[in-house]
Amino acid sequence: MTGKKGYTGKNAQERIPRERSIRQERRGRRRADEGIPIYTETSHHKASIKVGLQGVVRLSLMNRLSCPLVLPPFVGCLPFSYPCVPSIAIYLMTNRPTRMPEPLVALETTVLSHGLPFPANRDLALALEEIVRSRGAMPRTIGIVDGAVRTQCSAADLERFCTETPIDKVSLRNLPVVLARGRTGATTVAATIRLAHNHGIRVMATGGIGGVHQDANGAPSSDESADLTELARCPVTVVCAGPKAILHLEATRERLETLGVTVVGWQTDTLPAFYCGESTHPVDVRCDTIEEVADIVRARDAHRLPAAILLTVPLAPEAALPFEQVSGIVKDALHSEAARSLAPPQVTPYLLATVRTVLGDKAVTANVDLLKQNADIAARLAVALQT
Ligand code: PSU
Ligand code: MN
Question: Please, what is the average pLDDT of the chain?
């Protein structure tokens, strides 16, 4: 349902078959923190709850009114059916029946395994979680550990993501493979938002999103991050510092527009360029307060628009790296022999590492600073969306 109930899954694609939800719950798995959608508005006109569980059923009418219906244990043990009109949704509240959903912020693991060196990555992982908590929200650092989705990595998991090599870089295309083969994989923005959305998490914080790469001549290349296409079909909000500065910014901006991703500028009219501060490309809308952003998110959800909202936060000019200098380093790197032999998923980590090699600590500091800033704003947004 929208807003208050915390679960956004309600269009046809996201409907979770009732039987599957129930089976998963029997196995003791937790889906969203706030309940399991067992019936959302569909062509059915009746919903039967055939579970032997005691719990609370939450009825939501027309996506707005909602009331919990406490089932006595004996009713819960019997097949139970409830007539409903097409726009009714029923949630079986089994995990924590009486608790309201918490404001959750998804964080990714690719930035830890492939984006930053040790020990900056480990310090960052803990710092981001702490920042989110300090704003009254709950961090959810997502990754795949030994073939299982972790919607909250433990300290030991984070240590593995920060120190183990090699760790798979997981996007949408290889997600099922990593799961099926019991591998451990760090999730990119694309995989993280998909998993977050599946688990009812509505806000994510990252550094920079992937986008359209450039070739050695500075023209858009055919290497385009799956972050873009996944943003187009995942109605979450991603707080970032814009596309990474190593990318073809103009082409990336165009693709975001084509894909229907709303680009919001946080207290800015122009698109941030990752650790290079602001670019010259316009955002769709400027917001100066969290409430303004929350209104746009609510409007998107109320009308079931499919794409993500990208809340882009620029690094302060004094903390930013000079764009011309970074572009020069990237161009040289793309001309090198090493770059030519790279598999596409290695391009982003390679270019980021090359910028770090040339610019040293400044690049790590700028990258870490913007990640912290984004986690802070994401947490504030998650809290605002609960009220
Ligand atoms: N933000 C950072 N550093 C990173 C990333 C984000 O500050 O390394 C990661 C994200 O996981 C993003 C990925 O999804 O880089 C993009 O990789 P590619 O261009 O290969 O899709
Ligand atoms: Mn790529």
Answer: 82
Cα 184 to averaged position of ligand 1 atoms, centre (Å)? 17
Q: Which residues line ligand 1 (CB under 6 A)?
A: 108, 110-111, 114-115, 188-190, 206-208, 210, 225-227, 345, 348, 352, 367, 371
Q: In angstroms, rounded to a whole number, what is the distance separating the alpha carbons of residues 351 and 334?
A: 8
Domain contains 99: no
The pLDDT value given to residue 80: 39
- Domain termination site, one of 32, 64, 94: 94
Res. 20: pLDDT tops 70: no
DSSP 8-state symbol, 114: I
Strands 104-107 and 138-141: parallel
Q: Is the pLDDT of residue 243 over 60?
A: yes
**What is the distance in A from the centroid of ligand 2 to the CA of 303?**
32
pLDDT surpasses 90 at 321: yes
Mutate to test the pocket of ligand 1, among 113, 174, 213, 227 (most ligand atoms within 8 A of CB): 227
Instruction: Please answer whether residues 244 and 379 qualify as being in contact, where contact means their C-beta atoms are separated by less than 8 angstroms.
Output: no
pTM over 0.90: no
Query: Which of 66, 94, 122 is the C-terminal boundary of a domain?
Result: 94
Q: Place 274 in a pLDDT band, splitting at 50, 70 and 90.
A: very high
Domain range for 81 is: 4-94
Tell me the DSSP string of 239-254: EESSB-TTS-HHHHHH
- The protein residue whose alpha carbon is closest to atom 19 in ligand 1 is 210
321 CA from centroid of ligand 2 (Å): 24
pLDDT score, position 249:
98
Rounded-to-integer distance, Cα 360 and Cα 215, Å = 24
